[in-house]
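Homework help board

Subject: predicted structure for assignment chain

Our instructor gave us this sequence and asked us to write out the predicted structure in token form, then describe one feature. I got the tokens but I'm not sure how to describe them. Can anyone check?
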Amino acid sequence: MSAPRESAIGVNLNAANTVTLIRMVLIPVFLLVLLADWPRWFQAPALFYQLRPWLAAGVFGVLAATDGVDGYLARSRNEVTTFGKFLDPLADKLLVTAALLALIEMSVLPAWIGFVIIAREFIVSGLRMVASAEGSVIAASKYGKLKTVLQIAAILLFIVKDSTAIANMGPDIEAWFQVTAWSVMGAAVVMTIVSMVDYFIHAKDVLVGPWSGSPDLVESSVIAQDDADRAIDDLTD
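My token output:
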């Protein structure tokens, strides 16, 4: 197996980290496809205006799917790195945040929903930083994974729910699509809050003690680290 390439900043860019970096770099492309008036720039036929939300949804779906690709590469090639552990969840959060802000900009999504989801990410990241400072690791939970799946599905539905193609399917299909999109988004918001509460529960020892140096905390840190290493295939929180 060839050694990972080392960049100018001294970070090993293995295959998994490269895929993650590509996902981050392509986030502006997704925003460009969704928000920019590129059909007019290229004097494209009117059909491209109708296809724009579907193209944007396709780009978003591909970027979201690469989360599984980099995880598979890291496991199969035994190239799990600290840099990758930091970069992968960051890329996921940037992608979801960018999509939510774009939907708010389009007046498709209420701002309070975006605030709840984004605020949760700040709060959980803060909890993980505090836990790390105390020598503890909070492993990803099933609630966090389900939250991520629901958020991605809801964003995809919201990108296309007001498209011309859906409207042309008739009022019944259009109404069903609207109800489905809002239901999935509602479920995503609920799981966002539930997963945050779950993090607080798992971080209670870090928040209220025992503190640094306590044997109980050291032992829980080792157990949590083992759990995190076994769950390294999915760093979603």
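Reply (TA_rk): Your tokens look well-formed. For the description, you could write something like this. The two ends are 31 Å apart (CA to CA). That's the kind of observation they're looking for.
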